[in-house]
Amino acid sequence: MPRHEPTPKVEEKGGVGGRIWHCCILCPLLILLLLCLSPGRPPALAAALDSNTPRGQELSSLPPVATSRLHPGQAMVLADQEYFPTLLNYIRAAGERIDMTMFLFKITDSPRNKPALLLKELGRASRRGVQIELVLEKSSYSDSINRENSKVAEMLQSHDIKVRFDSKQRITHNKMVIIDERFCFVGSHNITHSALAFNHELSLLIDSPELAGQLRSYMATIK
């Protein structure tokens, strides 16, 4: 009798191989969907998923503190050049409001000038409906500080951003930024290229709605 070789077993479409392939594709998508629907995601991440987020922004562009779900009360040290990219990304992800006080906000015409990039992102945030308010120093002793802050104020106001100055009778030397009434940047960084690119500076990013409220109340007292 002729010998018959066993017919190789071919996995039918939808068999084990197909099921494994579908699981590999569907499981990560399901996990991502659950994360997006989670009510506990921070506003910065929520804003990145919102339709108002500028085109081209990806979750990978957000700072680690946002994607790792920093909880209220936790803080992150931003040393030296870590401050600029983190602040830039939080401004990009802001969904409701940005409050800022600065001793010095200085821009130049250089295409690599970091303060100019921040100013540009503030303008974009304003155009997508984010409410923005800044308080800047009005110096009684430095025409240079007044010239730089006034220049920036005029540019910000052209983007419908509210800017006011303190009194010459008292120096406003603090540097703080509050994003969406929750994320607080407090420390030594001025918005100058030297501070953002070269100097030894130290600031903290703190996730605290309570602290944000206290800082905004303090900001309202600066006149």
Describe the protein.
The chain is α/β, with parallel strands linked by helices. The protein has two domains: 13-42; 70-221, 2-Layer Sandwich (Endonuclease, Chain A), CATH 3.30.870. It has helices at 16-37, 43-49, 64-67, 83-93, 114-127, 143-157, 193-197, 209-221, and strands at residues 75-79, 97-102, 131-136, 162-165, 175-179, 183-187, 202-207. Helix 4 (83-93) packs parallel to helix 5. The radius of gyration is 25 Å and the shape is globular. The termini are far apart.
Summary of the model, kept short:
The protein is of the alpha/beta class and 223 residues long. It is 41% helix and 17% strand.
Could you outline the blueprint of secondary structure elements for this entry?
Elements: H1 16-37, H2 43-49, H3 64-67, E1 75-79, H4 83-93, E2 97-102, H5 114-127, E3 131-136, H6 143-157, E4 162-165, E5 175-179, E6 183-187, H7 193-197, E7 202-207, H8 209-221
Parallel strand pairs: 2-3, 3-4
Antiparallel strand pairs: 1-7, 2-5, 5-6, 6-7
